[in-house]
Amino acid sequence: METAIKRTAVQKSTIPQSNVFLIRELREKHFDATWHAHQEYQLFLVLEGTGTRFIGNTVKHFDKGDLTFLGPNIPHLWRTEAYFLEPPADKISRGLVIYFDVSVWNMLIHKDEFSQVKTLLEKAQYGMDIYGKCAEETSVLMRELLHLHGTESIIQFFRILDLLSTTKDYQLLHNDVVHNPMKEVESNRINIVYTYVAQHFKRKIPLEEVSALLNMTPTSFSRYFTKKTSKSFSYFLTEVRIRNACKLLSTHEVKNIDQICYESGFNTLSNFNKQFKAFIGMTPKEYRQKFLTL
């Protein structure tokens, strides 16, 4: 049996004490592919690249233009598609990320003028998926911010917060706030499982096999995984497979639904149809039809 490589949780760049926020442009073969969390708020925009993002207990395909706003302690990772990591090596993943800690605003955040921003930060503790016109306008402001300095950068930063605080183009990712940050040792263990599933979801993964990665019995592993991710391992595995199927169905590649079924790790078409409708609310054929009409 293959073993997953143990990787330490990625550490983001520290915000200098002299700064209100930190903005970075990411240009890598892949984004942070390890499960991690931090105390700072994070606004992340995908400029180039595609893959699967894991935020808290949600799994979703990401592509160019994907914009998320996360509050403190929400564990997350963006796993780039395999073809970005293989020859030819001219493909890159690009993104813009803003980190900030509201502790530097303690004298302002409770003032009336900041009431909308305060509400926004409360929403961000559940995680926000931002889309539509707001995502497009925020993308422009973030690109401009990358080249601004001094007072102009602060003004632009607050323009972004003001835009996010007034939009209705968003969806909350969770129904509860993450109160306790995940310890590094737990992040590393979950990373082992996530990495292994990303590599092997197209085939059957017995519980005995994945539990052995953490030197646990299947029963102990099941309890541990559910406690740390708020979902069972079987649910998580099915979710990853469904999201892969969604990605394939939404492209214009000539693949029939039978092919997509088996390439996503399902053994029978009937089970694929049943699970897809349970997760997405429509059949694979209906889902594909949405994109064929675009």
Word description of this protein:
- With 294 residues, this protein is of the alpha+beta class.
- It has two domains: 21-172, Jelly Rolls; 200-292, Orthogonal Bundle (Arc Repressor Mutant, subunit A), CATH 1.10.10.
- It contains ten helices and nine strands.
- It has helices at 115-124, 132-145, 150-166, 184-200, 207-213, 218-229, 233-250, 257-263, 269-280, 284-292; strands spanning 21-28, 41-48, 51-55, 58-62, 67-70, 76-80, 93-100, 128-130, 170-172.
- The strands form two sheets. Strands 1-7-2-5-8-9 form a six-stranded antiparallel beta sheet, covered by helices on one side. It has a three-stranded antiparallel beta sheet with strand order 4-3-6, covered by helices on one side.
- Helix 5 (207-213) crosses helix 6 (218-229).
- The longest helix has 18 residues, at 233-250.
Question: What distinguishing features does this structure have?
Answer:
single chain; 294 residues; alpha+beta; Jelly Rolls; Arc Repressor Mutant, subunit A; 2 domains; three-stranded antiparallel β-sheet; 10 helices; 9 strands
The rounded distance between the terminal residues' Cα atoms is: 43 Å
Number of domains: 2
Largest sheet: 6 strands, antiparallel
Strand content: 15-25%
Mean pLDDT rating: 86
| Beta strands, count | 9
State the fourth-level CATH superfamily of the largest domain.
Jelly Rolls
Query: If classified by CATH, what would the architecture of the largest domain be?
Result: Sandwich
The rough form would be described as: globular
Order of helices and strands: EEEEEEEHEHHEHHHHHHH
